[in-house]
Amino acid sequence: MKKSGRPGKNEINRECKDAILEATVELIGSIGADAVTVRKVCEKADVSIGTFYHYFSDKNDLMMAFVREESFDGFDLETPLADIAGRLTELYMHLIGKYQELGRDFMRSFYTTGNQALSAYLDEENGHFAEGTVMARSEKEMLEAVKTGILPSDLNIHQIAMDVCTIIKGCVFEWCLTDARMGIEATLHRIICCYFSGLLCPDEN
C-alpha cells in the first residue's frame, strides 16, 4: 500500500473517498474513535496519506464528513410549524440520528472540546450560519413561524437559533455522560418546549 506522496489521478475519485469513510466507521467500531488515526484509516482503506489529505484536512475534518455532506434543507419535516418546539426537535434528531448510527463510542469521541471541525460547524461566521447546516435550517423554520404569527416579530431569531443549538449540544453531552441511558429525544423535546413556552404569541400558548 502507498503510505506517502501525492495521490495519483486514478486515486482521486469518489471510490477513494468512500473507502476512507467506510474504513473510518469500521475502525471506530473496532478500536474506538479516540484510537483512530489518519495513518490507521489510510492503511484500512488502502489509500495513500496524500490521497487522504486531498479530501480531508485532518481527523476532525474526516469526522465532520458524516454530518456535513447532506444538506439539512433537503428534506421535509412532519411536525407542523405550529408546534415549533416539536419541529425543531425533529430537525435536530436528524443530526443526532447520524451520530447514533455510528455508535455511542463515536458520539463520545466526536463531541469533545478539542474537535475544531465540530466547533466550526456548530458556529456562525460574520453573524450567519452556513447554508445547508442544521442551524441555518433551524433559523429558517423560526423565521417562518414569525411570518405565520406563531412567534412574535420582535424576537432575535438568530440568537434563539444559537440558544437552541446550545441546548442540543448540552443534551448530547449529557447523553454521552450517562452512557446513553438518557432518552435524548424526550429530554431534548422537554427542554425546548420549556424554552419556547415564554416566547410564543399569546394565542399559541
Describe the structure.
This protein has 205 residues and is an all-alpha fold. The protein has two domains: 1-56, Arc Repressor Mutant, subunit A; 68-204, Tetracycline Repressor, domain 2 (Orthogonal Bundle), CATH 1.10.357. Helices cover 60% and strands 0% of the residues. It has ten helices and no strands. The model has no long low-confidence stretch (mean pLDDT 85).
Task: List its salient traits.
mainly alpha; Arc Repressor Mutant, subunit A; 2 domains; 60% helix; 205 residues; Tetracycline Repressor, domain 2
Can you tell me the CATH architecture of the largest domain?
A: Orthogonal Bundle
Characterize the main sheet.
none
* SSE ordering: HHHHHHHHHH
Poorly predicted regions are none
- Portion in strands: under 5%
Task: Just give the CATH class of the largest domain.
Answer: Mainly Alpha
- Provide the CATH topology of the largest domain: Tetracycline Repressor, domain 2
Distance between the termini: 63 Å
Q: Give the rounded overall mean pLDDT.
A: 85
Number of helices: 10
Shape: elongated
Total DSSP E strands = 0
Fraction of residues in H or I helices = 55-70%
What is the radius of gyration? Answer: 19 Å
Number of domains: 2
**Which structural category fits the helices and strands?**
mainly alpha
